[in-house]
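Why Polymeric immunoglobulin receptor? Reviewers of the renewal asked for a concrete example.
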Amino acid sequence: MTKLFTLILILLAGLPDLQCHVTTADHEMLVLEGQSVTFPCHYEPQYASYVKYWCQGRMREFCTSLARTGDAGAAQPGEKVSAVDDQVQQVFTVTMNNLTEADSGWYMCGVEIGSGWTADVASFVYIRVIHGLSTVNNQLRGEEGSSVTFECLYSERYRETAKKWCRAGDWSSCVVTGSDGRYEDASVALSDDRIGSVAVTLKKLQTRDTGWYWCSVGEHKLSVHVQATPPTAPAESLTSTLTPDQAAADPPPGLITGQSGSSHIPETLLVCSSLTFLAITVVLAAKLWKMRNRPYLLVEQEASLREIHVEKSHMPLQMTFTKPYPD
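Here is what the prediction returned.
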């Protein structure tokens, strides 16, 4: 009996692998309470006309359905969960609104294959809903004399709670939003939208403002680093002021006036004409020299031919006689 029970457990443990061969991309998403989250599900082109679904759970058989597309591209706006299927881009996009901590858990985004023997194609994500503070970037940089703005995000339960901005380690430096959600002085301004974000603007940054700060609400505080950088030196101006007489007497380089243009053209033509005439003269002189010395060249060639003929006439004649064979 014990062996049979063990075998059943092994088969049950392997059941998801036998029935649910899926493509997964497991990861975790952190979301502040009261905020929204959007999750894109990409699928292959052959599944464009298939039904897509979004459910809470990690096994298809025990997954609570939250959204489903009966039609391609159908959506349910205004609800806590909405889904849109873009068959052109092959992406099924799910949006969950006004999340609470009870919404934390595993979610499945799947393509319904429609066969009991073929597993759906799906991907998974774990959504963790937390309360407290968050930010996109906690590193601020700005030039001295400029202003920088930081956005501190908070969860829904702190919408009516006062927000604080403090120099890290010094609670006496804290400034607090009033009943209207605002605070402002010569160096800092706070503005709470009462939805989930408070904007902190540091004005006229100075070197002494560099350091760590806290954005605080309730028992939570978020560390933010601010760095004031030296201002960028402006480029030196090379513009000079000239009187009308100076400008006419000495035009700036790169500008050609009518008088300077007319004086340069004859000089250029004169130089070109001189070079052309010199080249023609050299060619003509070379041709005349060749024509003048041609008779002497012919005489020298004829004399050389005569010497060769005489030498050949004085060469001894060599003959070879062959003795006839005896009869």
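Residues 258-292 form the longest helix (35 residues). This is the kind of structural detail the renewal will allow us to pursue systematically.
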